[in-house]
Amino acid sequence: MPTNLPVPAADLAVLRQLGERQAQLAESAANQEKIEAWYRHDAGHPERRPMVLAEVDYLRDRVRAPWEELRCTHAWARQLERRLRLRHYEIEVLGDDHVALPWVEYGPVIHATDYGVPGGRHRQADADPLAHNYQPPLTTLDADELARLQPRHFTWDRAAEDRERERLAQAFAGVLPVRRRCQPWQLFMPLTSVALEFVGMDGFMTLLFDNPDGLHRLMGFLRDDYLAQIDWLDREGVWPLDNEADYVGAGSMGYTRDLPRPDSPALNGGPARASDRWFLSESQESVGLSPDQYAQFVFPYLAALAARFGKVYYGCCEPADPLLDSLESLPNLARVSVSAWADEERLGAFCRRRGVAYSRKPSPNFFMAPAYDLEAVRAHLDRTVDCARGCRLEIIQRDVYVTAEQPGRFVQWVELARQAAARHRATA
Question: What pTM did the predictor assign?
Answer without folding.
Answer: 0.96
